[in-house]
Amino acid sequence: MTSREIVHQTLEFKNPERVPRQLWVLPWAIQHCRDGVEGIERDFPMDIAGVDGGEREPLPTQGDPYEIGTHVDAWGAKFHNVQRGVIGEVKEPLIVGEDWEDAGKAHIPYESLTIDPDRINRQCAASDKFIMAGECPRPFEQLQFLRGSENLYMDLAYKPSGMMAFLEKMHDFYCRWVEAWARTDVDGINFMDDWGSQKSLLINPATWVEIFKPMYRDYIDIAKKYHKKTFMHSDGYTLQIIPHLIDLGLDAFNTQIFCMGMEPLKQFKGKITFWGEMDRQHMLVTATPEEVRQAVRGVFDALWAEGGCIAQCEFGAGGKTENVRAVYEAWDEVLRPVRLK
User: Fold this and answer.
1) Can you tell me the distance from the alpha carbon of 133 to that of 228, in angstroms, rounded to the nearest whole number?
2) Which CATH topology does 3-340 take?
3) Model confidence over 103-121: pLDDT tens digits?
4) Strands 309-315 and 273-275
5) Where are the alpha helices (DSSP H) in 101-255?
6) What confidence tens digit (pLDDT) does each residue in 162-190 have?
C-alpha cells in the first residue's frame, strides 16, 4: 500500500494498515540535531510531502525568516528575529491608519498565482506520497502581521470599512490561490491560522463564525470541487471551533490537542482526522521517551476510529531526538494489538 493510499484511507476512516506519518522539522532541529532528524526520517519514512510550485514570477521577499536579522514577507510585513532557527516577530505594523486608509502599502502577492501546473503535476506523478499544495492561506495571521495583533483585535470588534474592504481583497486572492492549486494533481489543500491561546480562543467565537468561517467555507468548497482533501493548522486551544470545522467538511485539523486534553475531544472521534500533534511545549522537550509513548497510546485510544489520526509532530526548539523518535515508534505499535484481535 502506498503512502498516498494510507493517508486517504485514514482520512476516510477505512482502516489503513498503519497510521500515516509526517514530521515538521524547523531549521533549529537541523542546526542542533541533524543526525537525529536524518535517523528518524530514514527509519520512519514520511507519508506526506510537498512540491515546488515553480512560480514564474518571484515573490518580493527579503532576508531569511530563520536567520538573525530582518525578514520582509511577500505582503510587506517586516519580522525581526533574535534567535537563529525560529521565526521572528513583527514590531512595526505596516498598516497604522484608524480606518486602514494606508492599506495600499500592503502588497497582495499575486506572484503566488503564477505556479507552473505542468511542473507540479510531474512531481506528483513521480511520487507515491500524499502531496500537499505549497504555502497556504492564513487570513487572520496575515492581518496581524500587517496591522499588529492588538490593533486587529480592536478592528474585529468595530469592523472599520477599510479593514473590511482589504479583507475582501485578501479573501479573493486566497480563493484564487486555492483554485490554482486545486486544478493541479496535488492530493491536499491546506490553510492555517493560529486561533488559540493556551486556554481559549483569541477572539470571541461569534466573531470567528461571522467573519472567518465563511472564508474557510469558500476554501474548502473550492478544494472539494476538485476532489481534494482539506487540511487546517492552528496553534492553541481551539475546542470552540472544531464543531464548525466539521460542519464545513474539513478533513484534517492540526491543533495542539494537549492544550485541550483527550476527554473533551472524544466527542469528535470519527468525525474529523486529528492531524497530530504531540505536545511540543513540554512533552517533546522534558518528558521521557516512555511518557511520550504513553501519550501516543492515549491519543490513539481517544481519537482513533479505523482512521482519524495522523502521526504528526514538530521537531522544534528544545525538542529531544529520543522523544521525537518515541512518537513514531509508538504510532507504529498502536495498531498491532488491534490487528491481533
Assistant:
1) 10
2) TIM Barrel (3.20.20)
3) 999 999 999 999 999 999 9
4) parallel
5) 117-125, 139-147, 149-158, 161-182, 205-207, 213-225, 242-248
6) 999 999 999 999 999 999 999 999 999 99
